[in-house]
UniProtKB/TrEMBL annotation:
The gene is rbsK. Requires a divalent cation, most likely magnesium in vivo, as an electrophilic catalyst to aid phosphoryl group transfer. It is the chelate of the metal and the nucleotide that is the actual substrate. Residues 8-286 form the Carbohydrate kinase PfkB domain. Catalyzes the phosphorylation of ribose at O-5 in a reaction requiring ATP and magnesium. The resulting D-ribose-5-phosphate can then be used either for sythesis of nucleotides, histidine, and tryptophan, or as a component of the pentose phosphate pathway. It comes from Pseudoxanthomonas putridarboris. This is Ribokinase.
Length: 316
């Protein structure tokens, strides 16, 4: 008998990441001599789907568009190996999405994406939502498609989680269909304008807003409630995909009915572990690894405690 509950559908991008390691990320006009080179399955949508599946407990499907090149097979295999059920829109004659990443020795990165087939995902491609509790979206596919998916899900009683990345302005009609908005500080500023994190989330007309704050942790505002979750202390090697790991793990836990505070802690631990490994999907931890970190790491082990996090966010 299956123990999976609360199905999740992820609709979004899949890219093959071309990663070069270098001492630092080049400035405009600068050429940097790199070192190691490798390719990894990536794309915000696919990364989040893998993170959702590896978090366990929620049946995970993914709607994605791929070309007819060799890159497509790599991405499909990564999803299948992670327990994701792919729903693939095949696009002959179009390249599969790619991303070119420079990774510095201090774990920072610079990323350029060539969307390829991702740009051809349309509203008509959305599958039936029967059995789906949460729909997880990002902004690496056409904005009108994202808005159509959110609108359809809202009408079907499916909860919509939107990771508003990469940063761009969004219409109020799309945000009105979102139940949980996940952003980093830069993305939040794009949507809410200037001010402290506390002031910005208060201005967002979304039931729940989650803000990831890098090595500091995260903050969530649901209705009038504020939750702060300090980060877990790790030795970061590569931050690529850490935010996607957070989104997928968070959605998986919410789909199982986990209380928000507990879901934030689980997602924060998963994201921290993802920073200790190279690659995007290759760095996503399994549920057992996350639970081991949670058991071994009380909150006070974080380099940024709750009080410091609250001050950073403008709560005190």
């Amino acid at each position: 008998m299956s123990t999976l509950t609360g199905g999740v559908l992820v609709a979004g991008s899949a890219n093959l990441d071309f990663v070069v390691r270098a001492h630092h990320v080049p400035a405009p006009g600068e050429t940097v001599l790199g070192r190691d080179f490798a390719t990894f399955p990536g794309g915000k949508g696919a990364n989040q789907a893998v993170a959702c599946a590896r978090a366990g407990g929620a049946e995970t499907r993914m709607l994605l568009a791929l070309g007819d090149d060799a890159h497509a097979a790599v991405l499909e295999r990564s999803l299948l190996d992670s327990g994701v059920q792919p729903i693939i829109v095949r696009t002959p004659g179009v390249a599969t999405g790619t991303a070119f990443i420079c990774l510095s020795d201090d774990a920072e990165n610079a990323i350029t994406v060539a969307p390829g087939a991702n740009a051809l995902l349309k509203s008509r491609h959305l599958p039936a939502l029967r059995g789906t509790r949460h729909l997880l979206l990002q902004l690496e596919t056409p904005l009108e498609t994202v808005a159509a998916y959110a609108r359809t899900a809202r009408a079907a009683g499916v909860r919509v989680v939107l990771n508003a990345a990469p940063a761009q302005a969004l219409q109020a009609a799309l945000l009105a269909d979102v139940d949980v908005l996940v952003v980093n500080e830069g993305e939040l500023a794009t949507l809410a304008g200037a001010g402290s994190v506390a002031e910005q989330v208060a201005r967002m007309a979304v039931p729940c807003v989650v803000v990831t704050l890098g090595a500091r942790g995260c903050l969530a505002r649901r209705g009038g409630e504020i939750h702060v979750q300090p980060a877990f202390a790790v030795d970061a090697v590569d931050t690529t995909g850490a935010g996607d790991t957070f989104c997928g793990a968070l959605t998986a836990r919410l789909a199982q009915g986990t209380p928000l505070a507990e879901a934030l802690r689980f997602a924060s631990a998963a994201s921290a572990l993802a920073c200790t490994r190279l690659g995007a999907q290759s760095s996503v931890p399994a549920r057992a690894e996350v639970e081991a970190l949670l058991a071994a790491s009380p909150e006070e082990s974080s380099p940024h405690g709750r009080d410091a996090l609250a001050i950073h966010c403008g709560l005190s």
